[in-house]
Amino acid sequence: MTAAAAILCFEAVSKHFGGLRVIEDLTFAVRPGTRTALIGPNGAGQTTVFNLITGVYPVDTGRIRLDGADITDSPSRRRIGHGVARSFQNIRLMPHLSTLENVMVGQHCRNKGIGGVLQPVNLIPRNRWRTEARAALAEAGLGDYERATVGSLPYGVQKRIELVRALMARPRLLLLDEPAAGLNPAETEALQMQLERICAGGDLTLLVVEHDMHFIGALCEEVIVLDFGRKIAEGTPGEIRRNTLVQETYLGAPAAAPMEPHGAARSA
Amino acid sequence: MSGYLEGILVLLAVNVVFAYGGFLPLAAGQLNLGLAGFAAIGAYASAYLSNVFKLSPLIAIPSAGIIAGLVALAVAVPVLRTRGIYLALATFALGQIVQAIILNLEIVGGAAGYPVAAFIRFPTIAAVAVIVVLLVWLLFGTRFGIAVTAVHDDERVADLMGIDVRAFQIAAFALGSAIAGVGGGLYAHHFSFIEAQYFNISLSITIVLYVLLGGTQTVLGPLLGAAVFTLLPEVLRASANWRYVVFAAALIVIMALRPEGLVTGAQLRRLFGWHRGGPGEAGVDAAKERA
Amino acid sequence: MLREAEEAAILSQQIVNGLMLGSIYAMVAVALTLSIGVLKFLNFSIPGLFMIGGMTTWALIRAGTPWPLAVGGALMIGAAASLVVERFTWRWMRMAEHFVPLVSSMAFLLLFEHLAVVHWGSELRTLPALFGNADWRVAGLIISLPQLVGLISSIALIWALTLLLARSRVGRGLRTIAEDSDTALLLGVDINRIVPVVFLVSGLFAALAGVVFALNYRQVHPFMGEVVGLKGISAMIVGGMGNIWGSIVGGLIIGLVEVMSIGYFGADVVDIAVYGLLLFILFVRPTGLFTGSLVGQARV
Description:
The complex is a heterotrimer of chains A (268), B (291) and C (300).
Chain A: E1 8-17, E2 20-30, E3 35-39, H1 46-54, E4 61-66, E5 69-70, H2 76-82, E6 84-86, H3 99-105, H4 113-117, H5 128-139, H6 155-167, E7 173-177, H7 185-199, E8 205-209, H8 213-219, E9 222-227, E10 230-235, H9 237-242, H10 244-249
Parallel strand pairs in A: 3-8, 3-9, 6-7, 7-8
Antiparallel strand pairs in A: 1-2, 1-4, 4-5, 9-10
Helix pairs in contact in A: 3-6
Chain B: H1 3-27, H2 35-52, H3 57-79, H4 84-104, E1 114-115, H5 122-140, H6 143-153, H7 155-160, H8 165-191, E2 193-194, H9 201-214, H10 221-235, H11 240-257, H12 265-272, H13 280-290
Chain C: H1 2-39, H2 46-62, H3 67-91, H4 100-120, E1 125-126, E2 135-138, E3 141-144, H5 145-167, H6 169-179, H7 181-186, H8 191-217, E4 219-220, H9 224-239, H10 244-265, H11 270-284
């Protein structure tokens, strides 16, 4: 796969903090329209990868390309404009904004300039941004929570709101940081279905950091495995499951956790 | 209207304007302890413009507000590179410098104070206060309000969502200072005499305190805070200095029990939820029961 | 020749006066820095405690108390006031906004100032000259007895503080909390017992600074804390927040700057010079002259 065809491209990226080398000469590419998992033992560097993509940390060496554009030196607040949005491991919604307003924050990057800032979103009920946000919440089954204070809502609901917020930016690449963490099986299944629905059009690429192998096996077509900041394997979930190096890395993790190839029937 | 009542209402109107001057930066998560300095700039600029250039107060006061805002803008860029406590202290140093400079400006009377020729009555002052409140309410009804609150709540995530955090902080700071300048102008043209000693750190602190008392989560909070600060001591028939004692004591208790202030966002949504359509909080409870 | 000697003498005297004033600012700065260093809390009530120290001294002396007892009384009342502040800013606080304790401490400043006005009126009050002409003359410099008392007591108190921090268990606890409050908890440091100590010590420093000010400059009024308190804050920033030696150096610098600028440029420019220096430091090096933890290894 050439660099031009990939939606996301890491080229020999390294990052260290003080003496600690967190990411070491990492090169990988993500195909557009896919659902790709980024896995590895705790501390292997997955969240750091997300932080490098979104610009929270600058890279030490290497380049990052998003949809062909070199974003390595782009400031963090511009990256969402390049088409990448993310959700967070610990939910980070704004406590002083209602659910609807939180979701509207996601639209901010699509409102350019002073005119964009002065959009009377809370003054005119039929304002198009407000309508769009309400529709998105309704579609995600969250319409009832519009006016609620987010801090009082159940954990699973907050996670879904965060997802809607990220989608409001109309990203090409969506980074999900442990989206299934803390969810019960029913919520996990609902999340998986929601993600498959939003990816159905083929415009959106998912990059998911997760530890729940079931979830990854059911959702993702591609898996990239990290250890100590390096890529040690990549392939389909089936290939990864059979990869001995990966098995060694995960020694002690339930080897019995089946990672069904994507599309295996969730029969009955 | 009796002179006494008019005096109280004038004070209320001026305090309301000051309150919104303090509210703007606080809504963005910044503490401006130099508010009194910007009020002073507004007061003295307006007085000077009307004394020397014979401008009507209706022109001088807004102009003075703009001048205060421009000074704030010039200073905001370096000052807002500092954070948190450092920012509060930088703004306080700023306020002190302004006061010290004015004390030495013989052209506006220096330490002896500066008389103001043009006089404005309560209706004008009330009108200006109403306009200020309206403008802030409109502004916070736009995306500006959402962005500023996002910056206040979580700078890191706001930045990742594409919000230019520095720009909004600078804007809130400059706008708040401009409003404080307008308040200073109103004060100058009604009390007809201004002196630098009045615009001290105590004034800045007092304003910040009654804004926080009212609550910074909603646009109504500062109005309530200014009202409580101005009117409660009248109700209690407190003398000038007991007013501050009562106010300070009340604030200490309130900060301990209800740090968000008197008016919170959640309250307001509950209160007005049915006006704007949607089931509001009632819907949440219903949804929880269904789940 | 004589002219040079005269100027040198004047300069030296100014330096002495500047250091005297600076030691007062230094004590206020130390009080503030202890609070910030250990509790991460800018305690705005400290200028109020300074005023309580000064005005209580005046009030007690006016009532006929001999000055050593008046000083002791003022210190005790200042310390007690500080513990009241602790109870209402620290104990009850719920951190909804990150500057809640700061705001409560500002309210306490207002409270103390206006209680003083209600009780004593807002006029400037003068203390009687207690020490006659008992000046200490050395090398052509004049150091008055109150100045000497002030200097010795500041040095003694600061020395006691550094001993406390370096040698005692409480002091170790304070330093640990200053470094990392989470680790402190893990190490078993009882924060609830240590916090009142911080308030007590910083209250004592602030009150003593007020006492020394009252005895030296013999003028007190309910808002005296504001200007001195603010210069103390400046001193703390210049020297480096959370660093005790920095606060001391910062205080002395500010005192010198103030006296020198009065001497060479006139009284008008003083505040501009001091606060201008503060702004400059905040813009250029906000962490102040010294970095490093509480008991300043004065690392720059």
